[in-house]
Amino acid sequence: MIKFEINRLLKRRISLFLGIVLLVALFTGVVEYLGISIPKRTILDVFSFSTSSIMSLLLAPVAGFFTGGALVADNRSGLLPLIFSRGVSAFEYVTSKVITSALGQMCFIGITLVVFFVALLPFFPMGTIYIGAQRYSEAFAYNEPVTYCLLIALLFMAAAVAFNGIALLTSVWVKNIFVVMAAPTLLYMGLTYVMSMGPTKVNLLDPYANLALTDVSIPVSILHMVCYWAVIALVTHVLAIAAFSLKKDYM
After folding, report:
1. Contact yes or no for 120/43 (Cβ under 8 A)
2. Using CA atoms, how far apart are residues 220 and 38, in angstroms rounded to an integer?
3. pLDDT of residue 112
4. Looking at the predicted structure, is the pLDDT value of residue 157 above 80?
5. Above 80 in pLDDT, residue 6?
6. CA-CA distance, 161 to 232, in Å (whole number)?
7. 52 to each of 25, 30, 126, 153, how far by Cα in Å?
8. Is the separation of the CB atoms in 156 and 52 below 8 Å?
9. DSSP of 111-128, one letter per residue?
């Protein structure tokens, strides 16, 4: 079942379209970076600055449109009853869907970031990070810029998987594919809006959610944010598997 799902995922042309959209958006972050006066520009600095500025805006909708509606799409196309008629259990089906969509999200975001970094190589020299770091990790980013950029990549991959899990969990009960795809974006926008209102209870209880790293105003490190989104990714996917497996009516 997993091999079948991987083959289906590889044939989806939307991944190329979304990758191009994401790359174009990341280069708009480069343009913004060039408009800032700093003593020296480096590839790690521009990579950190651009991803921190752009990914927070596009990661949730891209994740939702990439694989978030997979369960609903199978149901609407009539493929789900056909799969079950061949002896595949609900648990086996949803587990393969969860594994392949999560891996797909990680590979998609990872490859996009690698392509973006390689595209920057001819234009910027290597060096440390000056202005592109998360506020409470500035010293770490300055001293260990490569490690910091790797953590950024892990953070965005973990967040993409978490958004995918939110969409899959929503699709267990919601049959409208557009609502399912939009669910991660609406949830993330609502949470960040409440957090931006000041030192509210939500701000104190959930200080790790804001992916706009240069705007984070709460003293949390980048490593804590990676762990936070990884936990959200794990919990949402486990809940999606459990909810779908225990569901009585799949139509």
Report:
1. yes
2. 25
3. 92
4. yes
5. no
6. 9
7. 12, 11, 19, 10
8. no
9. HHHHHHHHHHTTTS----
Dist CA 73 CA 53 (whole Å) = 32
Check: CB of residue 140 under 8 Å from CB of residue 226: no
Cα atoms found within 13 Å of the Cα of residue 144, Cβ hemisphere only: 8
Whole-model pTM: value is 0.85
153: three-class secondary structure by DSSP: helix
Contacts of 187 (CB under 8 A, 6+ apart): 60, 166
- Length of the chain (residues): 251
Take residue 79 and report the two structure tokens written for it: 């493929």
Taking residue 69's Cβ as centre, other Cβ atoms within 10 Å add up to 24
pLDDT above 80 (res 1): no
CB 142 within 8 A of CB 130: yes
Chain-wide mean pLDDT for the chain?
80
Compute CA 203 distance to the chain's CA centroid, rounded to the nearest angstrom.
Answer: 21
From its phi and psi, is residue 240 left (phi > 0), alpha (psi between -120 and 50) or beta? alpha
User: Residue 64: which of 198, 189, 155, 246 has the closest Cα?
Assistant: 189
Judged by DSSP in three states, 156 sits in: helix
Residue 56 has a pLDDT of: 80
Q: What is the dihedral of CA 62, 63, 67, 71, to 10 degrees?
A: -120
CA distances from 173 to 16, 71, 127 (A): 29, 10, 49
Terminal Cα distance for the chain, rounded: 20
Structural contact between residues 209 and 195, judged by C-beta atoms closer than 8 angstroms = yes
Q: Which amino acid is at 191?
A: L
